[in-house]
Write a structure and sequence with these properties.
This protein is mainly β. It contains five helices and 29 strands. This is DUF4374 domain-containing protein.
Length: 441
């Protein structure tokens, strides 16, 4: 298939010197510091159905949309499973929404439609009208791509994939390196077509590769302030050079890394490394990095030594190793693990996490990126609350909407004011055995 390359119209983000801002506007890749919110938008709830085991989310995805007023009303009950719309995907759909909440974007994950990009007009309740135009990217990014929507006014989605990892040896059968094929693909969200894609092997340093380190996953792309680079998170793997198999020894982890590619050409992949973190930076089901109006990118880590961290990438597209933000230290606990997070503006973000000895139970923290402080959000917690598959947040003005249901139990939408941290209980979410709500869009 020929590449269909359209012009990208990317405006530079507005720099405000005193605070960060959310990446969430129709005109550029950061958000104005004044965001009054939209009381007319739809709020769409997403629920994952059980496949084999409770909470695995492998049975498909249902969605249901309500008004802002209904989302905030604790007397309103929402049952996405009995009353909602089934979004096409064999397993958990990878959903994104437009800035105004009127459109859902989806890439089906695995199955006969795996890799198919489609979009739906949101009309309230279960009424979601699917566009007649679709494009399948499976030939380039497999049937299970990871993707996010850039904050460029609903113009572009970026899908990434790492496949075909293989071990290479020399003529004497001595281990050389392990590499996979990396794909970076740009989708035109309005016209539903492929703008551009590139595929390449991306090596670590020779010193790292000979020890067996390699890229195991890509995810969490974010556009820099200048609009000329994409930063893509990396999950790291390691093979034992003696066997070529997964390394189960107590090896020393290498620094956290990201891939940087030119935008919009998607060419010239390079790797940047952190000296203060050894975690992964790819995240899982949600955004893992955000641009602030100070021009810096803030990126969460997972599987880090000493718990998750927030890293800073500066306007030179390099890690700022003078910025140290340990969630363990900020929260006074150990083994923090960021499942998902969302930047809300003015230096404030909300993190869904678990930690040592919590048995996977999820918690919410408010983080201040300017002061590197964090506090737990006061909501009713439950041992079965699991944010491992969480995908979507809505930031509407100062309000952050989060769907909170323990696996198999009813819950609620919670609305948190990002300036005051005041929490309001919203609509009740009716659950089913083994299921859980995994996002607000």
């Amino acid at each position: 298939m020929k590449n269909r390359i359209l012009n990208f119209f990317i405006c530079a983000a507005v720099l405000t010197t005193l605070s960060l801002t959310s990446c969430n506007t129709d005109n550029d890749n950061s958000e104005d510091s004044v965001n009054p919110g939209n009381t007319d938008r739809w709020i769409t709830l997403s629920g994952a159905m059980m496949g084999t085991n409770p909470g695995d989310g492998n049975g498909g995805t249902m969605v249901y949309s309500v008004s802002v007023a209904d989302a905030k009303n604790p007397e309103k009950s929402i049952n996405v499973y009995d009353d909602g719309f089934h979004v096409r995907s064999q397993r958990t759909a990878r959903l994104q929404s437009s800035e105004d909440g009127n459109t859902l974007f989806n890439i089906a994950y695995t199955g006969p439609n795996g890799g198919e990009f489609s979009k739906y007009s949101v009309n309230g309740g279960k009424n979601h009208a699917e566009s007649d135009v679709k494009v399948n990217i499976a030939a380039y990014a497999t049937t299970a791509p990871r993707w996010v929507k850039l904050f460029d006014g609903d113009k572009t989605g970026i899908a990434v994939n790492l496949s075909g990892i293989k071990v290479t040896t020399d003529e004497n059968k001595v281990y050389k390196h392990s590499r996979g094929l990396s794909t970076v693909l740009a989708l035109h969200l309005k016209d539903v077509l492929i703008n551009n894609y590139k595929q390449y092997e991306i090596p670590f340093s020779a010193e790292e590769e000979v020890l067996g380190h390699y890229i195991s996953r890509l995810d969490g792309p974010v556009l820099n302030k200048a609009g000329n680079k994409l930063i893509i998170g990396i999950g790291k793997g390691k093979h034992n050079p003696a066997t070529g198999l997964a390394d189960a020894t107590a090896y020393t982890k290498i620094g956290a890394k990201s891939v940087v590619v030119d935008y919009p050409s998607l060419e010239n992949p390079t790797i940047i490394s952190s000296t203060i973190s050894v975690g992964n930076t790819n995240g899982y089901r949600s955004f893992n990095a955000f641009l602030g109006e100070d021009g810096n990118i803030y990126q969460a880590t997972q599987n880090d030594n000493g718990g998750s961290r927030i890293l800073k990438i500066n306007q030179n597209n390099q890690y700022d190793n003078s910025y140290v933000f340990s969630l363990d230290a900020a929260l006074g606990i150990t083994g923090t693990y960021v499942d998902a997070w969302r930047y809300a503006g003015n230096g404030i973000g909300y993190i869904l996490y678990t930690h040592d000895n919590a048995n996977g139970q999820g918690f919410i923290a408010r983080v201040d990126l300017n002061t590197q402080k964090a506090t737990i959000v006061d909501i009713p917690y439950d041992a079965d609350l699991d944010f491992g598959q969480y995908q979507g947040f809505v930031v509407n003005g100062d309000d952050v909407y989060i769907a909170i249901t323990p696996v198999g139990k009813d819950g609620n939408i919670y609305i948190i004011n990002s300036k005051t941290n005041v929490v309001t209980k919203g609509a009740k979410l009716i659950n089913k055995p083994g299921n859980h709500y995994i996002g607000v869009f």
